[in-house]
Amino acid sequence: MIIIGFLTIAFAFLFLVPAFRGEILLYPDYYLGPLRIHMYSLTFFIAVVAGFFWVRKNAENFGINKAVAENLVFVNVIAGFLGARVHHILSAWDFYSANLILIPQIWRGGLGIYGGIVGGILATWIYCRVKKIDFFAVADLCAPALVLGQAIGRWGNFFNQEAYGLPTALPWKMFVTEQYRLTSFTDEKFFHPIFLYESLWALGVFLVLAYISKIIIPKTRSVILGQEKMSFGQVFGSYLILYSLGRFLIESLRADKTLFFDFPANQILALALIIIGLLITTRSAWKKKANQ
């Protein structure tokens, strides 16, 4: 942990701060000799690996076989990725309809997180139906892994210089190269680092969910032994509420909103997921009380 902390501080002072000031130019690709590294793809890969190890480590505590959990991760990655890509393309269809060749070029960025969440949830539900597994047990297991992956994956937006916010003069403002600025802000240089806001918020949500998971894990062990009935859904419901609350607040700072009847579409989706999360946690609490 000390080494990780030292490397994080070094990265912040030697690379992040100068990049925010515009003293270091960012590129979507870097080279190690002949090896070309797509930073967006690299952060996506690291996010998947981090989520995989969380799920594998905690699977049996939720009464789920490790092999089943590992398969589920890959199912979620594929379904979540496709859902996220479709969401992004539909939200920017005016652009992609005129540039169809760019649709499969995911290394250029462009994933709609809510599409990924919906795709992952649907794939998980189908998988659980086929395997006859408690969906909410799996959702509780995967929720911390998902939001940890989101915290890591947002850094792909940093290197692609996308998902930034409105112009700002705040001390933590982020420099955006002219070619990546929206046409309405070509004369501006510094913007809200939306990717950083979302990454830090998601990391905070992960820590909260990890704590909640530790509270219910002893009870899930009793479930495995058949000593106690357990109602799952608390962790997953909390994820929907907490992540969507942050996304709702941060969305107001975005420069590239997609509107639905003059309202930001992502804020509407955030409110819908908050309501769903409240329903899930309420259901879990009622079932827990009934089982006592």
Please describe the structure with a list of short key phrases separated by commas or semicolons.
single chain, 292 residues, mainly alpha, 10 helices, 5% strand
In short:
The protein has 292 residues and is mostly helical. It contains 10 helices and 6 strands, in the order H-E-E-H-H-H-H-H-H-E-E-H-H-E-E-H. The chain has one domain (38-291).
First-residue to last-residue Cα separation: 40 Å
The proportion of residues forming helix, as a percent range, comes to 55-70%
Q: How many E strands?
A: 6
Structural class determined from secondary elements: mainly alpha
Oligomer description? single chain
Number of domains: 1
Q: Spell out the helices and strands N to C.
A: HEEHHHHHHEEHHEEH
Helix count from the secondary structure assignment: 10
Chain-averaged pLDDT: 84
Biggest sheet overview: 2 strands, antiparallel
- Strand arrangement across the biggest beta sheet: 1-2
Our estimate of the beta-strand percent is 5-15%
Q: Which regions have little confidence, pLDDT < 50, spanning 5+ residues?
A: 220-229
Label the overall shape.
globular
- Radius of gyration, taken over Cα atoms and rounded to an integer in Å: 20 Å
Description:
- With 292 residues, the protein is mostly helical.
- The chain contains 10 helices and 6 strands; from the N terminus they run αββααααααββααββα.
- It has one domain.
- A two-stranded antiparallel sheet has the order 1-2. Strands 3-4 form a two-stranded antiparallel sheet.
- α2 (39-58) packs antiparallel against α3.
- The longest helix is centred in the last third of the chain and has 31 residues, at 194-224.
- The protein is globular and about 60 Å long.
- The chain starts with a helix and ends with a helix.
- The model is unreliable at 220-229 (pLDDT under 50).
